[in-house]
Amino acid sequence: MEQEESICSPSHAGASSGEQYWCNKSEIIKELKKQTRLAGPLVVVSFLQYSFLMISIMFVGHLGKLSLASASMATAFASATGFSFMLGMGGALDTFCGQAYGAKQYNMVGVHMQRAMAVLAFMSLPISLLWAFTAQIFITCKQDREISMHAGVYARWLIPSLLPYGLLQCQQRFLQAQNTTLPLIISAALSTAISYWFNVFIFAMYIKFSPTCSQTWTGFSIDGRKKLLNFLKLGMPSALMVCFEFCAYEGLVLMSGLLPNPTLETSMMSISLNISAGVFRIPYGFGSAVSTRVSNELGAGNPRAASLAVKVVMLLAITESLSLSLITVALRNYLGHLYSNDDEVIRYLASIIPILAVSNFIDGIQGVLSGTARGCGWQKLAAYVTLGSYYLVGLPSAILLTFVFKVGGKGLWLGIMCGSSSHVLFLAVITMRTNWKLQAVKARERVYGSTVATSIQSNQESEENNGVQGVESASDAFRGPEIRDFCSPQEGF
């Protein structure tokens, strides 16, 4: 990626104080086109891949309340303990691959993917063992025994899908970092009716033989088995960032099983979560797009372009989330028929939909803010924010409303909305206070390791000893013209 000219100019009022810029209309439109071209395919891919679970729940729901409740609890457990972990840990590649590609360190893009594949393959073993004892875990948690036994059978049949799902996340992030989206759509479309393994095979063939990956994938190397701890340092916070959120939402299904009439409550909760997760595919696609844009621009040393990308995606997210929420409310009396033939379940779901629509709007904003965090490499900070938002605010509020004030299933959704609102608020404050030039410096340091820091230090010593001002040093070459001469006293995040 070539260094781009500054797309935002310092405002006269704020030029001396930091990060305030004005952007002309043509540049905003240009960035909008970039994001829609990137986000469109990613939304389609995300939805097609999620359709495996969505369609399964739809079919099972028509078999009866027991089948729906069992499959839903098993799916919720698998998502919280396995799929979300793989998804989150793969998110570390949004930072590593995106910033390496932006800095033109093409060989490292493939090396990072190899490290991720090795780590995720190893992590699939203990998770598979955990899934094998799903029934016993549910019974220990005081869930209905019949539902627990059926859920255990369903969970065991999900085990073969775990490893390919993890490898798929690595391949997808590898291509996404290069703004290569066509094979993602083709593979997802072809494999929707087959399996994750076919998806992995299609991606592998494309990466191996496509000329667009000739510089970023040079084959398996010894470097791909080195420095795995470096990946884990960002991969684990990235996994926790997603797992904390998934576990909070999937915990609603387990809590619904403790309410009177657990079959009805669990069915309603599983369907509403399924709808919410399906709707979330769109903002998740936008989040993936902004993650790529931000990481690429920061790696290339273009902090102003990264800042504009975040502003544009926020506009897209607000528009999309509001539109989808209104559509969901308009269809509230019809959505239940997709999942169940039971009139009681359908009526109950219709009463929950308005609350669900508000939750979807909040989650839409959260999705793109989390994408920004991945692009900048804030996974550790975001994990703390997620933990505090959902486990100090969201789940306690849900328990209080549901079991103390006896609001019922609606209380679970109202409580978790308190957590998601806190999540959005904290991430928004962090993003608004971000010093983008400093983030570009950190991105270059992450890509080049100690080379940048050493070069900066050597340059400073040279200037002190020789009194030379404005001399281009090795650090300038690394950091790029956009971030040269930046050491703002207002560091921000």
Shape: globular
For the largest sheet, list the strands in their spatial order.
1-2
Determine the N-to-C terminus distance.
25 Å
The proportion of strand residues reads under 5%
The number of distinct helices, counting runs of at least 4 residues, comes to: 18
What ranges have pLDDT less than 50 throughout 5 or more consecutive residues?
1-21, 450-492
Order of helices and strands: EEHHHHHHHHHHHHHHHHHH
Number of strands: 2
Task: Round the Cα radius of gyration to an integer and report it.
Answer: 23 Å
* Total domains: 2
Mean pLDDT: 81
Oligomer: single chain
Biggest β-sheet description: 2 strands, antiparallel
Sheet/helix structural class: mainly alpha
Give the secondary structure arrangement, pairings included:
Elements: E1 9-10, E2 21-22, H1 25-61, H2 65-90, H3 92-102, H4 106-132, H5 134-140, H6 145-156, H7 162-177, H8 182-191, H9 196-209, H10 228-256, H11 262-299, H12 303-330, H13 343-376, H14 379-404, H15 409-432, H16 436-448, H17 450-466, H18 474-479
Antiparallel strand pairs: 1-2
Structure description:
It comes from Corchorus olitorius. The chain crosses the membrane at residues 38-61, 73-96, 117-139, 182-207, 312-334, 346-369, 381-405, 411-432. It holds the Pfam family MatE. One of its GO terms (molecular function) is antiporter activity. It is found in: Membrane. It is a single chain. This protein has helices at residues 25-61, 65-90, 92-102, 106-132, 134-140, 145-156, 162-177, 182-191, 196-209, 228-256, 262-299, 303-330, 343-376, 379-404, 409-432, 436-448, 450-466, 474-479; strands spanning 9-10, 21-22. It is mainly alpha-helical and 493 residues long. The chain has two domains: 39-446, no CATH class; 449-483, no CATH class. Strands 1-2 form a two-stranded antiparallel ribbon. The longest helix is centred in the middle third of the chain and has 38 residues, at 262-299. 53% of the residues are buried.
